[in-house]
Design goal:
Length: 145
């Protein structure tokens, strides 16, 4: 029954192809951007881990405070407590302090916002640059290595 054999062969090839696509999808899925949860409230900004590997990192920022916040991802040689301030002393001078890699703005209370940023190895500071919030403690060191 040559036609039946051919049909079964096609089925097998179909199954193999499907399995191959599935494996390809799985191997892609096995190395997704690692998620980094960051909880912000009105006195602190806390990432779920203090370091991560270089590459794309998905920041999932949850605002548990009563005020609106933001997340700035700054690559810098400065420590979290030593960023350069604008003359008003209420906001960080981002350009003078380092290189901004990403920012998630306008995160309302109880809101979660997510974005993926590509991080090279180095020292970073994660902070909120809403007026006065840096001095309220919303800044923390973060390492990519
Ligand atoms: Cu803030």
């Amino acid at each position: 029954m040559p036609t039946e054999t051919a049909r079964i062969c096609r089925l097998h090839w179909g199954a193999l192809l499907a399995a191959g696509l599935f494996l390809a999808a799985c191997s892609r899925g096995s190395s997704p951007s690692p998620a980094l949860r960051v909880v912000v409230d009105d006195q602190s900004l806390k990432p779920s881990v203090s370091s991560t590997a270089p590459g794309p990192v998905r920041f999932e920022v949850m605002n548990q405070g009563a005020l609106e916040h933001e997340l700035v991802v700054l690559r810098t040689d400065l420590p979290a407590a030593g960023l350069r301030m604008h003359a008003d002393e209420d906001t960080v001078d981002e350009d003078a302090s380092g290189q901004k890699v990403g920012e998630i703005e306008d995160i309302a209370p109880r809101e979660q916002k997510s974005e993926t940023f590509n991080l090279a190895a180095g020292h970073y500071v994660l902070f909120c640059n809403v007026l006065g919030h840096y001095h309220q403690g919303l800044a923390i060191n973060f390492e990519v290595k």
